[in-house]
Amino acid sequence: MPKVSVIMPIYNKAARLRFSIESVLQQTFKDFELIMINDGSTDSSHEIALEYKRKDSRIIYFKQRNQGVSVTRNNAIDLARGEYISFLDADDILHPDFLSKMVWKAGGENVCYCGHSYVTEKGRKKARLNFAEGDILEKFLLNTCNPHLNSWLIKKSFLDEYGIRFSPGVSWGEDMIFFSKVLVNDTEVLAVRDYLTEYHIGQPGSLSENSMDKIKKDIEWMEAVKQYIYTRVKDQKRRNEAIAAIDSYRIAGAILYRLDRNSSLLYKEDIKELISNYDDFIRIFNLSNGIRSIKLMLVYLKMRVQLLL
Fold first, then answer.
1. Which intervals hold domain Glycosyltransferase 2-like (predicted)?
2. What pLDDT, in 10s, does the model give residues 181-230?
3. Is 8 a domain residue?
4. How is the chain classified by DSSP, letter by letter?
């Protein structure tokens, strides 16, 4: 059995699929399987995946009717034979030493993560990340320690023991729900203090990329996480801190930053209406998250001033 199962869902990613597959095959750590599931792509992703499957016996490939990314990842988890699970989106990249450093650091423990870089047409930038270890649930929810989906290594038996899977039908925030569940159930998380994955971002700044309906979806995934915390975290102090991280910062941040990014594309009347609609969430925001909270408060004040002009 392989040590690691790398899971790659595919949906119309032909443009960058070869780069992603090659980044897995070029790992210095060789004891892995790559599970690719094509979620009903209509481009040439199928032909590319088949080409690589014929070349390397470590590749497992299936094509299914479109079911969404959450179901696709769950199907791959169920197929996985590896001791550990890692995820890679089909347009992103693993550095050659990703698996070797992550497996070495994990050392038989349940959960390990590393840093990631953002890659745009303007270049590469390392994510701001507090490489915390141990119980990092609160830091994850406060966004001070928020590794990308590609940057985790998780023991499969741990996921099975706690019944952790992606939420079917959820296509926005599904990763946040999943990793929040992971961190609720593991308080001995390990970190590789290196930037070993690359998250490739398309054209930022368009209304479709930052559409306002994402606010509602952000609130939905956060409410789902809160419900899980209420039912699974028995320690009252830990439970209260995690819930406060969402209520006092994360929800308000999701609303205000999305409004700010789209302010030039919206009428003043629309912004006023949206702020009014989400006022219950914004009002409970406080300065408990240090400099991030201060920056968020400045965004809120800037928007208020703009509405007065």
1. 5-130
2. 999 999 999 999 999 999 998 734 333 345 667 888 999 999 999 999 99
3. yes
4. --SEEEEEEESS-HHHHHHHHHHHHT-S---EEEEEEEES--STHHHHHHHHHHH-TTEEEEEE----HHHHHHHHHHH--SSEEEE--TT-EE-TTHHHHHHHHHTT-SEEEEEEEEEETTEEEEPP-----B--HHHHHTTSS---GGGEEEEHHHHHHTT----TT--SSHHHHHHHHHHHH-S-BEEEEEEEEEEE--STT-TTTT-THHHHHHHHHHHHHHHHHHHH---HHHHHHHHHHIIIIIHHHHHHHHHHHTGGGS-HHHHHHHHHHTHHHHHT--STTHHHHHHHHHHHHHHHHHHH-
Let me know whether 23 and 113 are in one domain.
yes
Is 230 found in the same domain as 145?
no
The 10s digit of each residue's pLDDT in 67-92 is 999 999 999 999 999 999 999 999 99
Q: What is the pLDDT of residue 212?
A: 65
**Whole domain around residue 112: which residue ranges?**
4-200
Cβ(147)–Cβ(129) under 8 Å? yes
